[in-house]
Amino acid sequence: MNQIANSAETRERLIQAAIQLFGEHGFKGTTTRQLAEAAGANIGSIAYHFTNKHGLYLASAAYIADELHRRLAPPPLPAPTDRVASFATLRTLVARMVHTFTEDDDCRQWLLLVIREQVSPGEAFDILQARAFQPIQMTLSTLIARLTGRDPDDRRVILETHTLVGQIVFFLVGREPLLRRLGQDGYDAATVAEIEALMAAQLARYA
Question: In whole angstroms, what is the distance from residue 178 CA to residue 164 CA?
Fold first, then answer.
């Protein structure tokens, strides 16, 4: 039992080390020795758990994707004809995204790796897209489509969805410029509440 637990702990440490090092140095700039040392593991554990460095990289992307999906947890969609419930669900999901991207420190740790994949998409980006980005985008698009009388695949709906997501995510990506302008060290509860209220006001056009 202890061996199984230790093995799981080693795997977790390798993934956490990989997220940090791949984010900071990229795939090519990170060695297996660096990964093993940062995780407090032997190099052979990378092959044991992930086959090779590439496998660890993909596992790191999968970890981020699954954790993002778990945190954002798209709520069940109400009946297509229920506008009131659809609008309430949209507000709930947007509020959840605001709190996740302003308050969750893990998201800050994942940011560099995710940005690298945005700039140069590969297999890891496909994992992020399939497991995290697309489910959230599709839920938002479906709700916006219902509230505007369009189809979720309508070009306008897709653009509106992406604009909405971009506004929220920028509170994470553009965190430091905003905090410096506000003269704050971090997002306090009052600031998060203000951001949530601003996003809710923007959603009012769908009510």
Answer: 18
**Nearest in space to 61 (alpha carbons), one of 104, 135, 123, 106:** 123
Residue 182: CB atoms within 10 Å: 12
Which tokens hold the place of 134?
């697309």
The CA-to-CA distance between both ends of the chain, in Å, stands at: 54
Pairwise CA distance, residues 171 & 191, whole Å: 11
Question: Model confidence over 100-134: pLDDT tens digits?
Answer: 999 999 999 999 999 999 999 999 999 999 999 99
DSSP 162-204: HHHHHHHHHHHHTHHHHHHHHT-SS--HHHHHHHHHHHHHHHG
> What was the pLDDT predicted at 138?
95
Average pLDDT over the chain, rounded to whole?
A: 94
Output helix, strand, coil percentages for the chain, rounded to the nearest 5.
Answer: 80, 0, 20
**Rounded CA separation 93/81 (Å):** 19
Burial of 142 (0-12, 13-18, 19+ CB in 10 A): buried
